[in-house]
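Re: that chain you flagged

S.,

Sorry for the slow reply, it's been a week of failed gels. I finally had a moment to sit down with the sequence you sent. For the record, here it is as I used it:
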Amino acid sequence: MTLESLGWNTRFDGAFGPYRTLGLEAVRVTAEHRGQYRVMGGARECAAVISGKLRNSAASHVDYPAVGDWVALKHGSDGDLGVIHAVLPRASVFLRKAAGRATEEQVIAANIDIVLLVSGLDGDFNVRRIERYVALSWESGATPVVVLNKTDVCGDVAARVREVEAVACGVDIVTLSAAREEGIDRVRAYLRPGRTLALLGSSGVGKSTLINALLGQVRMETGAVREEDSRGRHTTTHRELILAPAGGMVIDTPGMRELHLWGDETGFERTFEDIMQLAKECRFRDCGHESEPGCAVRAALESGLIDAGRWESYRRLGRELDYLARKQNQRLAAMEKAKWKQISKEIRRIKKY
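Prediction finished late last night. Pasting the structure tokens below so you have them in one place:
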């Protein structure tokens, strides 16, 4: 096993320079479970924990290692448990808003080359969910590929493909049946030495079945879906980076139903590039696309050039990003206020002496 086969490149090598002089080793995080990690380097795989300094300097959990990260490791004296001292800058990172009310980001996986957005062609098919996944994928810095699984239970695959094409402009779309191992080679073509793929999608779409087919062995537990809505239960409970026998890596992730956007408008604008281009043709630069004269977007809606569902999704995700930006600003302001309050408290304490 070489670092290059794990995805190491000149970008990471340059960032690792200062840690190399300290005698640390470059390794990649392959799994995380309750604060302990599995890491793999050129020589071996071992368990690891983060150093106290890294824990204390982290502004949030996003600064902690995640599956796919390259980190600087010092091996323990017993030769087994290592200590992670730093996380190298990420080439890409898939983020989402953490579940719940708190406005916090969560890292799903890091340093991904291609995101396989897996969706079932059964009763759980949802084009709006795919649209949301595409936006988050572009935001991550990775390349999205939509994988439509379960062609064996779909009566009109071509119609489903057309629906996805309308919301995933410029994105590759692959159709297959993982259970029957039909069309697997179309996905396997993306799996190359040194390249990292991450599978994302809801529970029950067949991610684990697809990984088993790609690996040629039963590595992941699979489960049946409910007949009434085609939804599955969580058979994958943690994220893991798996080496493929023919080269390349696959990151499996637990199913996600609560998927909120996180980031700026880059992924959003790329996902809705057709609407963004039309908006430039509006008579007024600040057009709200409601009742303004000369609105190119309204004209496209009335003529059917833009689907009403896609327009509503554009507005909904736009409002979500605006709300997130406001909450982030409030959070940053609160953090800044707390920081200066602590500094003032420390100054008063020092003056007493």
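What I noticed first: The first strand starts at residue 25 and ends at 33.

Talk soon,
D.
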